[in-house]
Amino acid sequence: MTIHSETPAGDLSRLRIDRDAAPRRPWLAWAVIAILVAAGAAAYPTARSYVAERRAPEVEIAPATQMVASAGGSTALPVLVATGYVVARHSSDVGVKTGGRLARIRFEEGTRVRNGDVIAEIEHADIEAQLEAARRAVAESEAQLTQVIAAHEEDVRTLDRQRALAKDGITTAAALTGAEAAAAVSSARVKSAEAAIASARARVRVTEEALENTFVRAPFNGVVIKKRAEVGETVSPFGVQGQASREGGAIATIADLAELEVQTEVSENSVAKLVPGMPAEVKLQAYQDQVYQGRLRQIFPSADRAKSIVEVRVTIVEPDVKVKPEMTASVTFQEQRAKAGPAATEATAAQAPIILVPKRAVTERDGQSIVWVAAGGVASRRVVVVGPVRLDQIEVRSGIAPGETVVLNPPAGLTDRGVVRVKGS
User: Can you tell me the distance from the alpha carbon of 122 to that of 105, in angstroms, rounded to the nearest whole number?
Assistant: First the structure.
């Protein structure tokens, strides 16, 4: 009901009722208030959860992993990891013994050679001519020896006759003395001719050696891994101008690919962990999924003072064609374990899987090892049984399953089933 009043106060004759006016709805305000209250009640848990989450400690997490032996690998306890390069245990930069121009090369990269095979030749026509001359000199000396021997024999017969005549008093002392002198001279000529033959034969051997030096032979069975010269180049045992990269006249690098090893360097502080003969796993950077078994062959007897490192060599037990010299490789040295019989081997195979977590995830409290497991934004306290340390990880024998997420460096304010925030989320 709406009352319009345009009359002075006290005049009620002009009052009218407007029956066309919209009716009032007092319940509408209460409905709006009820809706707002319901929305607030519904949003309160979410808001409270959001505030609690913002106030929750921020943590870093990492997954618990199960250690599984890959193809050719093992689950042995790792001791140290190092990187290095694959090298051949027997490798040689094969050079020339004498200078000259290369006339023939009988190899390319990848050519297999055997010990003693001729892999290159230096021009040697002049040496062959010298050898022919030396051999003819030997023949000439031998002919001269034949002549002086015949002359000496004649002089000896003459001396024998003069001595017989001297006994009968027929010849003179001068004739006898002359015959003796002639025999002595011819004997000396025989010795001189024999010496000339020996000298000529020695010159033949020297020339033959010089000729042999023009042939470059493989020093052992192996494979040519680098070709360093071409036909027509002039080479020298000490290198020539423009040949500085060939290490003093080397024309090829030959390696025995049947014995490959990893050359790596270890810090002085870690050398005490290594023992010759200890097992190792080798992985090539080019083939990360392939694991090769290795064995520590040698720890070098001296260290590098400037770098504070010691060089070690790890033999690759059974290399295949994928393993090539100069490849980058990583070596995981493993703890030596006593040999076990068949029963022990079966028991080891039946053991539970090895679970690893970062060392930063394990804390000690009241004499127990504690790990905090994060799931759904909530951290749960777990008591675990730990095993040996494996580099930056530790083995967990019970209390956690593979794939669960653990908290690293758990803060002091964590509570069991408490809310946490994950860094970066």
Answer: 9
Burial of 95 (0-12, 13-18, 19+ CB in 10 A): buried
Q: What is the pLDDT of residues 195-252, one digit of tens each?
A: 999 999 999 999 999 999 999 999 999 999 999 889 998 888 876 555 444 455 789 9
Beta bridge partners of 255: 91, 223
pLDDT tens-digit series, residues 284-298: 999 988 999 999 999
125 backbone dihedrals φ, ψ, rounded to 5°: -60, -40
The domain defined by 58-69+353-422 folds into: 2.40.420
Distances (CA, A) of 325 to 10, 234, 244, 253, 298: 119, 28, 22, 11, 18
Element containing residue 395 per DSSP (H, E): strand 393-398
Tell me the domain boundaries of the chain.
58-69+353-422, 78-89+259-336, 94-115+220-255, 125-212
| 179/93 Cα distance (integer angstroms) | 66
Tokens of 238: 């000490």
CATH topology of domain 78-89+259-336: Elongation Factor Tu (Ef-tu); domain 3 (2.40.30)
